[in-house]
Amino acid sequence: MMYSDTGRLNCNVTYTTFATPLRGQAPETKDLSSMLHKALEGAIILKSFPKTTVDVFALVLESGGSDLPVITTCASLALADAGIMLYDMVASVSVSCLGKNLLIDPVSEEESYQDGSLVITCMPSRNEVTQMTVTGEWSTPKIHEAMQLCLDACSKLGKIMRSCLKDAASVPQD
């Protein structure tokens, strides 16, 4: 790799063989790794890490549904806890559309019956979306409702993430 004035982000998502109910039936990890990279790269201040690579390795031990939002949120917390300079933490939430109902962070069984899904990843304090993925068929009013639901949930999740980091920082280390 050549010299660069900015840092570089590498993301790798893997599943254990026992992470899913059917052994070895994990989702395509290359796609998840790429999506995690896209979700996090806008939040990390890479120019503060010249000639440096920030590696994010996520190992899923148990898959219960809504994996990407969980992986993204946990990775963001880990980066912040490690002292990596961020513009803001990244919160991610998914919504599934089942008929006329919207379900936030569905479990695997609910995902298998969904008509469509929406995943929003954002920096809640900056009110910036870093990634959005939509699958399935949505009516315009339903997609607006789902987006608002995701953004509200991301805002609440961001507050919880900050609280967890503050609590962890205030605990005396042995």
From TrEMBL:
<dbReference type="GO" id="GO:0016075">
    <property type="term" value="P:rRNA catabolic process"/>
</dbReference>
<dbReference type="GO" id="GO:0006364">
    <property type="term" value="P:rRNA processing"/>
</dbReference>
<keyword id="KW-0271">Exosome</keyword>
<dbReference type="GO" id="GO:0034475">
    <property type="term" value="P:U4 snRNA 3'-end processing"/>
</dbReference>
<dbReference type="InterPro" id="IPR015847">
    <property type="entry name" value="ExoRNase_PH_dom2"/>
</dbReference>
<dbReference type="InterPro" id="IPR050080">
    <property type="entry name" value="RNase_PH"/>
</dbReference>
<keyword id="KW-0963">Cytoplasm</keyword>
<dbReference type="InterPro" id="IPR036345">
    <property type="entry name" value="ExoRNase_PH_dom2_sf"/>
</dbReference>
<keyword id="KW-0694">RNA-binding</keyword>
<keyword id="KW-0539">Nucleus</keyword>
<dbReference type="InterPro" id="IPR027408">
    <property type="entry name" value="PNPase/RNase_PH_dom_sf"/>
</dbReference>
<keyword id="KW-0698">rRNA processing</keyword>
<dbReference type="GO" id="GO:0000177">
    <property type="term" value="C:cytoplasmic exosome (RNase complex)"/>
</dbReference>
<dbReference type="GO" id="GO:0000176">
    <property type="term" value="C:nuclear exosome (RNase complex)"/>
</dbReference>
<dbReference type="Pfam" id="PF01138">
    <property type="entry name" value="RNase_PH"/>
</dbReference>
<feature type="domain" description="Exoribonuclease phosphorolytic">
    <location>
        <begin position="88"/>
        <end position="149"/>
    </location>
</feature>
<dbReference type="Pfam" id="PF03725">
    <property type="entry name" value="RNase_PH_C"/>
</dbReference>
<comment type="similarity">
    <text>Belongs to the RNase PH family.</text>
</comment>
<dbReference type="GO" id="GO:0003723">
    <property type="term" value="F:RNA binding"/>
</dbReference>
<dbReference type="GO" id="GO:0005730">
    <property type="term" value="C:nucleolus"/>
</dbReference>
<dbReference type="GO" id="GO:0071051">
    <property type="term" value="P:poly(A)-dependent snoRNA 3'-end processing"/>
</dbReference>
<dbReference type="InterPro" id="IPR001247">
    <property type="entry name" value="ExoRNase_PH_dom1"/>
</dbReference>
<dbReference type="GO" id="GO:0071028">
    <property type="term" value="P:nuclear mRNA surveillance"/>
</dbReference>
<feature type="domain" description="Exoribonuclease phosphorolytic">
    <location>
        <begin position="6"/>
        <end position="84"/>
    </location>
</feature>
<protein>
    <submittedName>
        <fullName>Exosomal 3'-5' exoribonuclease complex, subunit Rrp41</fullName>
    </submittedName>
</protein>
<dbReference type="InterPro" id="IPR020568">
    <property type="entry name" value="Ribosomal_Su5_D2-typ_SF"/>
</dbReference>
